[in-house]
Amino acid sequence: MSIQLNSKFCESFNIRYPIVLAGMAGIANMAPLVAAVSNAGGLGTLGAAYLSPEELRGAIHEIKKRTQAPFAINIFAHVGPDHYTNFDAVNEELTPIRESLGVKQHAQDEIRTPNHFEEQFDILLDEKVSIISTTFGLFSEHHMQKAKSLGIKIRVRSPR
Question: Which among 146, 148, 112, 124 is positioned nearest to 53, based on CA atoms?
């Protein structure tokens, strides 16, 4: 009995195997792994949500140097505002745990999530990445149309 690995998913994204590298934001220097997965026939995905625009462009260039195969860039589709209404209460609860583990307590301004969405999205269009993967929501109709007009495919990932 042989196993059929090619599927509509593979055809849709022009890959050989239905294997997707998770776009893990916050992991340093993922470009070599993204390219390796794509070169092996899967879909390499760079988790770019926390990258600055300059870091994102550099990572895309590094991936392109390493592979001609399709790869995806994953960005957060929705970055809501940071809410710190309970910051002090949460810190009070976590302080004993941090102290027992020897973990430094960070100030409120040190833990803010950057929101580079518009710049990141423009870079993805400018670099003509073949696939944009989204997390935590959907792109606006405007963003979807801009990507589709350039032939860029959109892959929506849900944590559920």
Answer: 124
Task: Name residue 133's beta-bridge partners.
Answer: 74, 155
Place of tokens 């949500």: 49
**Where on the phi/psi map is residue 110: left (φ > 0), alpha (ψ -120 to 50), or beta?**
alpha
Q: Identify the bridge partners of residue 132 per DSSP, sorted by sequence position.
A: 73, 154
Tens digits of per-residue pLDDT, 87-110? 888 888 888 998 899 988 877 777
pLDDT value of position 103: 87
Q: How far is Cα of residue 122 from the mean position of the Cα atoms in its chain? A: 15
CB 53 within 8 A of CB 33: no
First-to-final CA distance of the chain: 32
Per-residue pLDDT tens digits for 62-88: 999 999 999 999 998 866 666 777 888
Residue 123's contacts (CB-CB under 8 Å, 6 or more residues apart) are 53, 56, 57, 60
The residue type at 19: I
Hey, what are 151's tokens?
A: 């032939």
Within 8 A by CB and 6+ apart from 124, the residues are: 56, 60, 73, 75, 132, 147, 152
